User: Fold these one by one.
Assistant:
Number 1:
Amino acid sequence: MTTATPSAHPRRFSSRIHVTRSRGAVSGALLVLLGIWGGIIPFVGPIFGYAYTPDTAWQYTMGRLWLEILPAVATILGGLMLLTSADRRITIFGGWLAAVAGAWFAVGPILSPLFNGGVPAAGTPAGAAATQAAIEELGFFVGLGVVIVFFAALGLGRNSVVSVKDADRAKAARTSKRDMPEDPAPHDEGGEVR
């Protein structure tokens, strides 16, 4: 049985780590916007009649901290990592961070009675009609979480594979480095070697 040596592989480790920034840009930007929505809507939603109890604008509660503010911050950070990094490890970490935050948006309110004395920490939808309550549930938690997980997974998928274009770009960079002369002798202004 033969084993491959590092020189037998056409790609080097660094070519597998570097990704173009545009690879996760759309997912990252949308995750940042969704995170902003998730973090700000509990505070400004009551102004427009779109709220969970307590349905008072700019009222801070521990339920809002654990179920809305912290996952929103994690979504924004994950989105920024996908949006700005050229390091595959950072973009993948950012994608996972946003995916976990989206999952927490979706299941956090369901699990919150377990750590809040049997009472939902998020409160209840403030809408009196069943349709309004469903829209609030989707916009604040479940729907928002599912959409965040979708875009995080999209960003993870785009950044977890080494595309043919990436491999060709890395090969071209290695070839051009190999063809360049090593540190030529310094010349003065007249062209003579010093």
Note: The mean pLDDT is 84.
Number 2:
Amino acid sequence: MSADSAVPREQDAVDDALRRIQASGCHPRMAELARHWQSLRPPGPARTSLLPGRPHLDPAAIPRLMPSIFFADVERDPRLRFRIRLIGTRLARLFARDPTRRYADEIMPGIDESPLGTALRAVVDGGLPDHGGGPVTLIPGKEHLKIERLLLPLADDGSSVDMVLGMVILSYDNGRELT
């Protein structure tokens, strides 16, 4: 969706996406982040809501969630790419070097063709939250881990997604969370 065609999201579509995430049995911290994101959404015209932007989000309000959170700037020119703006300490330890200010496709080769890449594009295009998971496939040496992720759209203008707020929880096959 281009910035010129951006419109407020139907309230029901956003609420339905959040209900599906909650009903999926997502990790409790993800449910907490989804509720917090929802509380930040400004009202729009009748039966619509605007997306919260980065200025609406105060990291001090969610300190216990921050180690598992990342912010990715959305860049559209010349092609859709995601630049890591901030990454929580728990996530940063997964990479050989600090991924801050680097593109997701540089630190995770193959992301564009992966389920994560598909989900990121869907969040940007649809402006709706996304939740999923599975085996870790994009970080060499971490294939023994499972990932659960939550992706939430942010839009400074309320409608055109310019950043993705994400949360990642990693666990071992036995279900024990990686800390």
Note: DSSP finds five helices and seven strands in the chain.
Number 3:
Amino acid sequence: MKKLLMLITVALLFLLIACSNDSKESESEQPLEKREAQSNIDNGNGKEQNTNEHAGGQMNDLKLELQKQDKDAGVTIENNEIYTALDEAIKADTKMGVPSDFSLYPFDITVNPDGSKSILFLAINRLKDPIKNITFDMTFGNKEGEYIYENKKLVLPEDEFGILHPDSAIPFMLDITPEQEQLFNRLTKDNVHLEMANFKMDVEE
């Protein structure tokens, strides 16, 4: 994985988006600020509902998992700067995630070896089953219609990411342009928009 540029775990953006597993295919939007700010959720039926429930409660402590391709390459949490930073952030908030759901957490910006940049996300599994081969379409930007990604199809295949176990999180990265980075830096808990649609996954038996 790639070199960490900066940590914003205590800064303006603490965001989660969840996707219900009732039919193993749904879309929803759930911005969640660290201080339990109120947010709007798009339930996929053209309606919005409000929630300010913190993703805590009786959940087990969250654990960080390595991507399969990183583990196969000999990467560990201890010998990799990004995994170390993520592990520290998770240990500081072990109840991160949405109860009984799959969620996304935009964590930070990273610098790649060639000088380009990516957004680092955490995929969090709070479902009761291990999951794999996760796919969904993501729109991420602000409520004024300026998007970093719009209906971007994401695939987390088992051969690269492995199996995401219950109460676990795994990182992934998406490249950004300088213009997209500027938009990311302008996001706040009040103007951020994150939506996930067409969610599919396989359940590991």
Note: Residues 3-203 form one domain.
Number 4:
Amino acid sequence: MTGSVEVSSTGKEGEGGELSFLALIRIHEHLNQLFFSHQEALLMFNLRIACDRMLVFEKELRSHMKVEEELLLPIYQRAGRILGGPVEFFTGEHKRMLEFVGRFCEKLRELDRNPLDLKREIIALLDEEATFKHLVMHHDEREQSILYPTLDRVTTDAERHEILPRCFPANSSLRQMGYCG
């Protein structure tokens, strides 16, 4: 797919104004908002909406991870071994995040079938989700400080113009929100 990614309004340009992989932070921000909307539904005790929103979050998270693992991480490997940022860190964190999400989905289905002691069960779920959010925060920081700057360093501006638009369309609601051209 081709298209353009608007980055100047968000400051996601590298030195000299060239396109930067830091523009992908918008996907992380979008995923965070999807997760928060799931948690808002939990706070309203609306398990069906919470579950629906979790499924949307999971779909878009998987889509983003697929782009990173199949497109970006092979390019990242051009830089060689990087202290604090081996490929296995990123893929291992992806795996752990998906394990969390799987547990959340199962717990939501269980609560919907058997809502006994719902308030306490939601508190327990929110506690586990807090742990997940810490993992996501550290993962996002690693990508922002290591992965994306390294990708900028090992790619040309022309490559970034070809690769970056392919990263955004994988997230359908981002397309609808105008995050990609």
Note: The chain has one domain: 8-176.
